[in-house]
Amino acid sequence: MLNKEELMLAISDLYKKYKEQLLYLIFGGLTTVINIALYWLLGLVDAPVTVKYSIAWLGSVIFAYLTNRVWVFESGAHSVTELWHEFVAFCLARIATGVIGYVIVLFGVYVLQQNDFIWNILSQVFVIVSNYALSKLVIFKKNEGVNDDH
């Protein structure tokens, strides 16, 4: 059995090893909560599905960009040009996954005639996985050989 110090060291090592994935899961979860909460709140005022989805998507994308840039992927972009390219790439990726998520919701609601709230949650599973891959591999890709110790 590990003593307290060994356990803390083991936890610290695991955190360091999986920090990016852990933070992405935490902030991705919060992004999803924001999306679902906005979608639900707009349902209280009887907004149409397209309006609910679009506003919930926009709010969650803004939150996701800020948290992914600062804490998850620790972006090295600093110049206005770098920030602009990063932001545009982030938004384009989110538009692509957002459109696919929207199609998933429409399919569930209008083709399968099922609950829009449930299909919005299901679409978010696809969106989260796809967004991580795009962020990691394209948007916030670390340049090989670049020293990040500024």
Automatic annotation (TrEMBL):
Compartments, as annotated in UniProt: Membrane
The topology of this chain with respect to the membrane is: Multi-pass membrane protein
**GO biological process terms held by the UniProt record:** polysaccharide biosynthetic process
Q: Which Pfam families does the protein's record reference?
A: GtrA_DPMS_TM
Q: Where is the GtrA/DPMS transmembrane domain?
A: 24-140
TM annotation in the entry: 21-42, 54-72, 84-111, 117-134
Q: Does the entry feature the keyword Membrane, yes or no? A: yes
Enumerate the InterPro entries for this protein.
GtrA_CellWall_Glycosyl, GtrA_DPMS_TM
Q: Which PANTHER family match?
A: CELL WALL TEICHOIC ACID GLYCOSYLATION PROTEIN GTCA, PROPHAGE BACTOPRENOL-LINKED GLUCOSE TRANSLOCASE HOMOLOG
In the record, the note on similarity to other proteins reads: Belongs to the GtrA family.
This chain belongs to which protein, by name?
A: GtcA family membrane protein
Q: Which organism is it from?
A: Weissella halotolerans DSM 20190
Tell me the organism's taxonomic lineage.
Bacteria, Bacillati, Bacillota, Bacilli, Lactobacillales
